[in-house]
Amino acid sequence: MLHVSTDEVYGSIEHGLFTEESRISPNSPYAASKASSDLLVRAYHETYGMDIMITRCSNNYGPYQFPEKLIPLVISHALQGKAIPVYGDGQNVRDWVHVRDHNRAVDMVFHHAKAGDVYNIGGRNEQKNIDIIRTLLATIAEKTGMDRENLFRLITFVKDRLGHDRRYAIDPAKIEATLGWRPETAFDQGLADTVTWYLENKRWWNASFPASISNTTRSSTGKVHRMRVALTGADGMLGHAVKKVFSDAELIQFSRAGLDITNLDDAVSKIRDARPDVLIHAAAFTNVDACETEPEKAYLVNGIGTRNIAIACEDIHCPVIHISSDYVFDGTKTAPYDEWDMPNPVSHYGISKLMAEKFLSSLTNRFYIVRTSWLYGSNGKNFVDTIIRLLAEQDTLRVVNDQFGSPTFTDDLANTLKALIGHGYGIYHATNSGVCTWYEFAVEIAEKRGISKQILPVTSEEFMRPAKRPANSALNDTMLRLEGITPLRHWEDALDDYLARNS
User: Fold this and answer.
1) Three-state DSSP class for 400?
2) pTM of the model
3) Which of 19, 137, 420, 503 qualifies as a FRET site for 333, CA 20 to 30 Å off?
């Protein structure tokens, strides 16, 4: 077995080069995860005699590199007139190897190295990040005729990222001496060829690249444009929160009257005309019990409607943020659900929301599926307002106490949707933290409002509804945390905020 690792396991070095005998000292969680995998592979060799080799390569570049990486990010942002973020002062140093040369080295190690060997694969080609960026922009200007100075104005220095090592530098002398490997691709030529490849393959990187990291973009003429954000369900409860949070963007609002998401032609035509940079799909049939009695309407609006949005957005290469639900799960898990847990809805509403997820993930690569739960907020019917109203009308209230979940304030969710833009596509869970039952939620609402009416806990069987609810629909926000996005605050703190604003 050949294990492909990274030069980052050695950590940063101010002078000199790391050899295969150098102590590994990773400084970031990613580097630590690679170092731990190196040690695990080595342990299997030492303990069980497993035939393994380890390679540690410096930075790769070339075709088909995911666009979040430095070189393809610079190229794609430059071609789209977007700001090019440079971490810190841009003086971080990396060694670069063309992906073809890396592949040759891996092939040599696999066929000719001894079991247990470790090899550094370096290009002896150290470059500062800012120098790479300037070279790329100059090459793009030369190949496309774009104005060089305007391209250079796209460079935007941003706060340095956490765990950003200053200099990686490895010594490839061992693989050069024992296997005869040396890089064949000169860096200047390889970089020029890479620019050409991305120019000729825009469709590939357009399908892989998340929406703009900021809410503004800058064209190659230097003019600043606000991000264009389309919003379905603009008149809904979450839609109102999104409109507040995205007030600094150019917001294209689609109400139910303005866009029939169940009509494919209408969706394709209006979204194509709008040309948004990103679309937030908040329109849905969310009455869970009504979905149970009108399942075809649920499938049409939530399922087919999302299919049409996905097709329309794919047509213009527009990313979609789709609001999904905790009700895609059956509630049998005794712990909060992770993003990778298998959905198994128990109601027609849950089925329709899973149907939407399936359509979206199969029809476009540019999607964020955001599952949330127990939403409440201004400008819409919600549990908090309902409890307050019922307590004013009744002396005693019965509330279910065997369904667990996380109440979520729409303003907090909208802020998280904004923070998510520019991060990796996929499935995310986004709820206020903490878990409670509907009964516990109701009691907290009453206490915070100073209402002393009696609230009685009952079981789901005692409080029969047309649609079955999952007993546990609490969600873990693992993917948000892995992406470095701040988790939503505790649901009790969010409730305090909502009640204060609506006193």
Assistant:
1) strand
2) 0.63
3) 420
